[in-house]
From TrEMBL:
Signal peptide: none annotated. This is HTH merR-type domain-containing protein. InterPro entries: DNA-bd_dom_put_sf, MerR-type_HTH_dom, MerR_fam. Residues 27-84 form the HTH merR-type domain. It holds the Pfam family MerR_1. PROSITE patterns: HTH_MERR_2. It comes from the Bacteria. Keywords: DNA-binding.
Amino acid sequence: MTAGRPQRGGLSIGAVLSQLRPEFPEVSISKIRFLEAEGLVRPARTASGYRQFSVADVERLRFVLSAQRDRYLPLKVIREQLDATPVDSSSLSRVELLAQTGFSAEQLSQLERDGLLRAGPGGRFTADDITALRTIRTMTGLGVEREHLRAVRAAADHEVVLLKSFSDPETVRELADLFTSLHTLLVRAGLRQSS
């Protein structure tokens, strides 16, 4: 049995490595085994002891590797996030998100590195993420560059910091809508003044 060949009922560790390497060049079989030993992924085993990874296992590994690389989270925090979040039937895996939006895995990884898309615990995505990706595709089609999108992300992060200073969730939701409305009005006013 070769390490890279899918086994009946799941993927071999070599096949998983082949899927992850384009996004995470530093990942190795020993790293995947280490993450398994730490309880972050639990592949099934054949009667002869070979690991069989499911699509969900690969998504968990992607989430763990992204959280380590992009957010510098320790494994304990990542494990807590994974364990605390049940899989929501309305959420999407990475594979489902790519299928619904037409983005490539590399494009999606770049958007994650730029902070424009963030998987939730368990590596799952929401309908808002689909909308964000479609919006990004339209904007880039109109000539918006990556650095412009990163500026939008930075502005949103500043608003999030401000909103987190309020403790009432209902007030935060209302203020978030008001911030969006005010932002739109200020942009329109600025464009009127410059024309």
